[in-house]
TrEMBL record, chain A:
<dbReference type="GO" id="GO:0016887">
    <property type="term" value="F:ATP hydrolysis activity"/>
</dbReference>
<keyword id="KW-1278">Translocase</keyword>
<dbReference type="GO" id="GO:0022857">
    <property type="term" value="F:transmembrane transporter activity"/>
</dbReference>
<protein>
    <submittedName>
        <fullName>Heme exporter protein A</fullName>
    </submittedName>
</protein>
<dbReference type="InterPro" id="IPR005895">
    <property type="entry name" value="ABC_transptr_haem_export_CcmA"/>
</dbReference>
TrEMBL record, chain B:
<keyword id="KW-0812">Transmembrane</keyword>
<dbReference type="GO" id="GO:1903607">
    <property type="term" value="P:cytochrome c biosynthetic process"/>
</dbReference>
<dbReference type="GO" id="GO:0015232">
    <property type="term" value="F:heme transmembrane transporter activity"/>
</dbReference>
<dbReference type="Pfam" id="PF03379">
    <property type="entry name" value="CcmB"/>
</dbReference>
<comment type="similarity">
    <text>Belongs to the CcmB/CycW/HelB family.</text>
</comment>
UniProtKB/TrEMBL annotation, chain C:
<dbReference type="GO" id="GO:0005886">
    <property type="term" value="C:plasma membrane"/>
</dbReference>
<dbReference type="InterPro" id="IPR007078">
    <property type="entry name" value="Haem_export_protD_CcmD"/>
</dbReference>
<comment type="similarity">
    <text>Belongs to the CcmD/CycX/HelD family.</text>
</comment>
<keyword id="KW-0813">Transport</keyword>
<protein>
    <recommendedName>
        <fullName>Heme exporter protein D</fullName>
    </recommendedName>
</protein>
Automatic annotation (TrEMBL), chain D:
<dbReference type="GO" id="GO:0020037">
    <property type="term" value="F:heme binding"/>
</dbReference>
<keyword id="KW-0472">Membrane</keyword>
<dbReference type="GO" id="GO:0005886">
    <property type="term" value="C:plasma membrane"/>
</dbReference>
<keyword id="KW-1133">Transmembrane helix</keyword>
<dbReference type="InterPro" id="IPR003557">
    <property type="entry name" value="Cyt_c_biogenesis_CcmC"/>
</dbReference>
Amino acid sequence: MSGLNQGDMRLSGHGLRCVRGGREVFAGLDFAAGSGEAVAVVGRNGSGKTSLLRLIAGLLVPAAGTIALEGGHSELTLAEQCHYLGHRDALKPALSVAENLTFWADFLGGELFDAVESLAKVGLDHAIHLPAGFLSAGQRRRLSLARLLTVRRPVWLLDEPTNALDVAGQDMFAGLMREHLAGGGMIVAATHAPLGIESRELRIGGVA
Amino acid sequence: MTALAALIRRDIRIALRVGGGALIGVLFFLTVVVLMPFAVGPDLALLSRLGPAILWLGALLASLLTLDRLFMADHEDGSLDLITMSRTPLELACAAKALAHWLAAGLPLIVATPVLGLLLNLDMIATAAVALTLLAGTPALTFTGMIGAALAVTLHRGGLLMAVLVLPLSIPVLIFGVAASQAVIVGPMTFGAPFSILCALSLVSLVIGPFAAAASLRHGLD
Amino acid sequence: MTMSLGPYASFIVASYAAVALVIAILIGWVMLDYRSQTQRLRELEQRGITRRSGRSATELR
Amino acid sequence: MTLIDLANPTRFLALTARVLPWLAAATIILLTIGLYQAALAPDDYQQGATVKIMFIHVPNAWLSMFVWGVMSIASLGTLVWRHPLADVAAKAAAPIGAAFTFLALLTGSLWGRPMWGTYWEWDARLTSVLILFLMYLGLMALWRAVDDPSRAARAAAVLTLVGAINLPIIKFSVDWWNTLHQPASVIRMGGSALDKSFLIPLLVMAVAFTLLFVTLHLAAMRNEILRRRVRSLQMMQASRMAFSSDMAAGSREDNASKEAGAA
């Protein structure tokens, strides 16, 4: 994990306002996370948890406010230093598990970690040659997690990451997140269920 | 560079695997061309005069109709989000995807052209001329069609709407493609002039296509 | 034995050759496919994946 | 051995293994005899030696229709009797049928060149075969488009049967279209008036090619059954991993890294 940390990093947003389809989702939102910290975004359905993650990932443009990563790589944008794990798995059923993972490793680039070891960590190591279409929902999620491990990014943006994972999978995932934080990474997770790690709570959209 | 090569490799692989649509385009091309004589009659002299036009129309429809899933599939499974976020400029990624599509679906059309030329009673030189113009012109079709494919993602609609949007844009390519092949068969024009315009159209679309598609995709994200 | 095939000998030879070639491709495809499927079954069995009946999947007799 | 006995794929595989060598041997013997007789057959007074192309063109044309017939029966088996091997038979037959149809077109075109002066004439008979070829290709595309064979089987069966009903209609329309535009087709085979010296080798070749199809079809069906076994075993492997993933990491690691190296 040494390569991740170029000193202390700090991800912060100020006065964020998000408008989707003419409707204001939230406004005046502030948040911050330093190296080794996790933020759990909570709130009722439709309160804008996913929108916040997509704002940070650069997939949505904020109507007002700024998001910045201090101490990160100077030549890269914020989005390029983020991992985004959304509802959809970004997997191709026709390709094998290994082909899916090595594609993202080759395409996303940057600092890489061994793909086979990542698959072993998420418990998919003997499915390497199976088509991803044969995997169950939980196994597909594990394969997506392997992408987070193989391609190194300091900021993890996780949208309901424990969805479809069984109890053992959730434990495994909590371990991976702890490892990431210990290496100086940051996590912003939108979640209903407890994350399984120590985290700061960011409540949006009022009381649930 | 490895990133783009990986993207091209992946898209070609998916197109050739079970469920991929690479060869359906050729089959469509074949079917459209075979349908024509039933409409215009089996007169070989007539067919050989219409041959280049029929082949060009078939190739045009085949390469555009296979395009509408170009970005849609990646959008539906979330891959497009990751591609947008990546360190590879979205314009280059779009160009790579279009190139992969052309290799998997456009090249087979050109390979199939000689066989279809036989059915339409085109002689060797005419067939070669049509194949050459298709080789020069189909990249233009793919790269302009890509804009429509990107709009389809933005608008959440594929299929016919895309065809309606893109077909008018492909008229110049059709004009000069058919003109160049006709020039070889009947004259009176030279082959060179329309063919160089066709090549120029391809080059222009290679530049415009990726930028327009990337711009459309960026605005279409939600 | 020599046959006189007339002025169109090349067409006759070409059609027989084409038929031979395509049939050879068909036979080759069937045989290679068989080999690759049995190979994959054997690999799967080595990894301890067996059929419910407990019998070998490649077993034919 | 009744149809019910054959419903068990394992028993079918056993039968195939026993029968295939004999079928292959019979095919080779008949083909040799047929080719020998075809070589000895006299030249036609009108067409000269090109009539020799008939001995391979006609069997291929016959098979192009026969295979669709086989697939139609198999499709009935899928839709009506729900015979477990029916869709295997239908799927395995499609590429072989397409290959024979392609050969019928190719030899027809090579035969037509000396007769007509062009490789291709929009002659009613050739055109119908061309449409049949397109339908074979479409059917193969359908099989390829869906990953799960049992789901594809229904769609393919419906399409095959619709095709079988439509083929005579297509043939009729094409004939009508053709006579509208030009006088009847150029090649005049005397039909039943065909001379015995042609008829016997032709029949032998037709039987030999039919046997060839049966041999290839059985072998392809065997491959298809094995392919489905691979598929179901892989699915089992995928679902088994879910249970073993927690303890798996250690014991299987060297195995896995070896595979990744191979990939």
